[in-house]
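Sat 14:20. Reprocessing the chain from the morning session after the first attempt stalled halfway. Input below, unchanged.
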Amino acid sequence: MALVGNLKEISIATLIQLSCVERNTAQLTVSTPKGPATVYLQKGEIIHACYARTRGEEAIYRILSLCEGEFRVAEVTDLPDRTITASWQGLLLEGMRVLDETKKGKAEVAKTVGRHLDNAPNVECYLVASKNGDVFATSCEQDAEKMAGAAVLLVWKAQELSSRLALGEVGFTRVASGKTLTFFLDCGELVAVIVAKKAAVLGPLNALLDDIRKRLKYVELSNVQHGAEVMA
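Finished this time. Tokens:
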């Protein structure tokens, strides 16, 4: 028997949690102006999600932000290929953290990103900008607008090449020069540039880049004020 209702009455996180605790194999679908948002569960684990041309964990984070729409939870036997391997508890916790940070707007997001990068070993400077070239935050001495333009161009070219070769989404492009590595991150509607020492250990650095990209990718541009600033 299907469960139907409206997200104004119960949150999407609660619906997912209930289905997972009961170890259901089900399909949760929410009607939205951008099309259906769908989560598939198998024996209480989230195995796949899709919404507005996103799939996997990214889709889950976007779906968790929904607060309106008719939903339907029904048993399902025909399941899609698995794109999510993380536990449902971890997904919900991380999704709530990401959602909380994106609601805080530019000041808090900038503070969070700045704190991570200012305290990160081997990171020399950074920049955050929109794909329209508007610089939101930078600690770099170079021409911020030119760097932002270069970042937008590089991530666009990287995604174009990846699409032609069917390689999937490109998280960042890395350029080596002299004693530094410059990372150009594609963060949805934002781009970020992080300049690090070439001697940096790539494992921890890649983990940092992934975290920063995730934090920035879900920022709503309506919450981001224009104007460059240097983060202390």
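The chain has six helices and eleven strands.
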